[in-house]
Amino acid sequence: MKFNEFPFVRYTVFFVSGVLLYPHLGPLEPSPFFIYLLLSWAVFTVLSAAYRPAFRKPYYFVMPVLAYASLFLAGIWVAAINDVNNDPQHLFHQEDISGYLAEVKELDQQKARSIGNLLEVSAIETTTGWKGANGKIQVYHRSDKALEPGTVLLVSGAPQRISPPKNPETFDYAAFMAGKQIYFSHFIDTAFIVLGKEELSVWYGGILKLRQYLELKIAEYVQDEAAVQIAKALLLGQKADLDEEIGEAYATAGAMHILAVSGLHVGIIYGFFFLFFKPHQMRGYKRAVFLAMVVVLIWFYAAITGLSPSVLRAATMFTFISMAQIKSRNPSIFNPLALSALVLLVYDPFLVYAVGFQLSYTALLGILLFQPMIAKLWYPEEKWLNYLWDIITVGIAAQLATFPLAIHYFNVFPTYFMLSNLLAIPGAFVIMSLGIPFLLFSAFPLLATGMGYLLDVALQLLNAGIFSLQHLPFAKIDQIYFQLPEMILIWAFLFFVYLLVETRKKPVLILVFVTLFLLSGFRVYKTFLKINQNYLVIYRLEGGMALDYTYRGNLYSMAWQVKPDEFNYEILPHRIKVTGTSGKFLVVRDKGSLLYLELPCGRRLTLDKDSRLPTDGRELEMHLWEAGNWQVFDPTDMPTALPQAAIKISFNNRRPFL
């Protein structure tokens, strides 16, 4: 495999580099970058037209530099034009909002205490009157009537910016929603008026009605409640109703990927047509017409399932593969894969930050690179054993590529992922093979009853297998974490090992050892930083109190009346990623309005119980968790008695930042 055989891989790498650099440059006007892009492209075009063989060597250097510079600038420019900071009508730039006009964009989703939905604003009311505006708002209401897409609402009150985390290293919901271009939320309860309903497009309205109809048919003909939830997730991509216990079981088993409609599901549909109709044997226009019909069906299914990033990737990739197969019967998959990513990122550059997008492409790259290499280790003679070996190698390859991401984001590794894949992949194939015909013929009661019964049985068997894996000892390794440099170094190590196996060259072997050395050095560096820390973290909680004190690499903690959910989501992430989870008890004496701390470093600290601040802040460096970082602050500048974020008190650290 030669890298120069995959031009779209190179194009995508440089375009993505520009997108990733943009946030570090700050909000930038897109116009200058568009001018730079035009100039770069103009120079490239002129030089191409003026090419002479005598200047061949300089061209070998100049032309690629100009081409890749153009792609890099294009990435920055596309990110800039999609940045809401550059839109003067966005809610970002509006003040004194007392009400707004908005359209419902999604179906209601039942939450614990309210109903969630998404609104798109068209106008706002301020002290100067009504004016045009745009932006999306995640709202929560308690209306007796469902809010359907297309419904126009007049909402009272002002939306609020989605708050960043109050404690270090916790899940950043604000950043997660920002990846969807949603920056505001609003609990509207019943403080809104329905003004009417916009007529949805035939396409969008039809898709929504069809999805609702199919959900009702699944609930009607599939009897087991857990099976209904899995069927909706696996066949229609609807995971909103998935119980937490079921999701936890699939996540523990390492089979959560089959519940997120992705390349596996689209590939099954794609492979079904190729298995029975064999388009590679067709000639001329017949093959083109057949492949065009397959592409239309794939996009229709993708639309029904909600067009998630993984589905978009799969549908776009198979579209380009089909286009390539019109001329070639065995096209390389790397170019269509890279081109699909490039097209999606041109449409929405911030998809690159979506975890599903990252996992989807990383898993497929792992399968393409590592699966053939692993499969060569053994050639089973029996056909059934060869089939199981293929499933195992696919699972190992996907896990090799995705485990750094999974540990970075979710802090867990499924121990029995090979067993779960032996259940999940054939199970998904059987369920898709039964489920798609069931959905197609669900309007015919006689057929739907029989096929629904078979689908119900298959789903219950799959659930039973997945739940049994959850109860095996050491079903998962949790409370682990990779920082971004570690993740990159692990990927580099895996890639160099792959190159070593493929090329057997000494320079690649040297790169393998260099990567291992850097990875080991980074781990040593982290340990060195940890043992030189001497600080106290006071968490911001809704109720109760929690303190973590780190000294010489050891954790000392105290928790009082902390709810289990708050511990798991507000305290535990910081321990997993920074201090470690096992610790000793921190001695704290409660003296009325004051708390006295006997710190292992030999110091005593007195905290005001109401403000959580030290009564004597001399020789202490105080930090407040803001915008994802520790910010130095003066306690006398606090506007309220109780800080609205976690506090860190440093005691002469050699490195005061973490």
What does the model show?
- This protein has 658 residues and is an alpha+beta fold.
- Among the domains are: 3-86; 91-199, OB fold (Dihydrolipoamide Acetyltransferase, E2P), CATH 2.40.50; 216-254 and 416-477; 484-527; 532-650, no CATH class.
- It has 18 helices and 20 strands.
- It has helices spanning 7-25, 30-49, 56-81, 173-178, 202-221, 225-236, 244-253, 263-277, 284-304, 309-327, 334-347, 355-375, 383-410, 417-440, 445-470, 484-503, 506-531, 564-579; strands at residues 99-104, 109-110, 115-126, 129-141, 151-156, 160-161, 182-189, 192-197, 412-414, 476-478, 534-538, 545-551, 554-560, 584-585, 587-591, 594-598, 604-608, 621-626, 629-632, 647-650.
- The strands form four sheets. Strands 1, 2, 3, 4, 5, 6, 7 and 8 form an eight-stranded mixed β-sheet that branches.
- The chain is globular.
- The model is unreliable at 653-658 (pLDDT under 50).
- Its main location: membrane.
Q: Short summary of the structure?
A:
It is a multi-pass membrane protein. This protein is of the alpha+beta class.
- Rg (CA only): 28 Å
Gap from first CA to last CA:
42 Å
Describe the biggest sheet? 8 strands, mixed
General form: globular
Task: Indicate the proportion of strand residues.
Answer: 15-25%
Q: From the helix content, strand content and strand pairing, which structural class follows?
A: alpha+beta
Number of strands: 20
Low-confidence stretches: 653-658
Treating each run of at least 4 consecutive H or I residues as one helix, how many helices? 18
Q: What is the percent of helical residues?
A: 40-55%
- Integer average pLDDT: 85
